Amino acid sequence: MTRTLRHLCPGLVAVLLACTALAACKDNKQAAAPAGPPPKAQVTVVTLKGQNVSITTELPGRTAAFRVAEVRPQVNGVVLKRMFNEGQEVRADQPLYQIDPAPYQASLASAQAAVAKAEATVTSAQATVNRYRPLARANAISGQDLDNAVATLRQAEADVASGRASVNTAAINLAYTRLSSPISGRTGRSSVTEGALVTANQTTSLVTVTQLDPIYVDVTQPSGTFLRLKKELSAGKLTAAGDNQAMVKLVLEDGTVYEQPGRLQFSEVTVDQGTGSITLRAIFPNPQGLLLPGMFVRELVEEGVRENALLVPQKGITRNQKGEATALVVGKDDKVELRTVTADRAVGENWLVTGGLAAGDRVIVEGLQKIRPGAQVAVVEAPPPPASQAADAAPASGTPAPIAAK
Same structural domain for residues 216 and 300? Predict the structure, then answer.
């Protein structure tokens, strides 16, 4: 057996040496082979297409009551009765409180009696004057007596006029004992109950009545936005709702759209010198009382339809050191190009681009970190957006998506 191994060992060694030499030659060939071109970076692009886009401006603001009336007593007295429920809708001239009328009824009766007395005095004085005139013409009495009789008549007539004024004053004070609502609206909390003593023109109101239908919405915007909207209203781009007014919609705090359209009034005539802003007021119908004063809302002003507009996803637009909007575009031979663009405003999740790009350009939206201008890339077209996003981005005839005014 030992002899057999001795015969096999030289052959085995030769085979091993041959395999080693073959492997070394293969490695040398691989090392000598030239390196191939590096793989292309893969990017995702969106091909721009012109489309009709409804342009709207969003104006944040707060609601304010159309009219507010604070009910205060105009006479002194004790409250006998409250004739409404707190939070109740009341109409104009509806009684709210009854103050004890007895003292004022007595004052009215006294004034009426004084008038009756003065009128009786006038009758007596008039009869005296009528008797004295023929006697004075016949020189039966002196002229001085006639003059005194006429003066007494004039004084009695003045007393009648004064008494009638006192009657009117007493009647007014008696009417003030019943406090009525000056406007139609909703009552707030009552500050008094039956038995409370109130005084004329006191600083504390008995109740506040607020008219909520219609209701105001006040928004504060830069003067530049005001000028743009004013020009668009004059040019007919905004839907007019009357002289110096435009139709607007309202979005509530929970994101729902208020069903009643309103009118934006361009009635402000001064600009805040500290902030450069101007207050615009809109008026909305509020028949169900859904809108309450102090609520934060957003107004949507439809500025018209922009034809052949270009919408670029926001992730495809960046800013350079100068603050300019830029985009990377795949150009000829699949090479990356840097474009400076004009991003007018945001529309949903897109930018409305008005300069620097054209229909058919392929804007890179993914893979921006691994490329630079001049590099050749492998292009993959981005999938179309979901139906909900597409409806928000380009609804030429639907509800415009809320956007921020720039």
Answer: yes
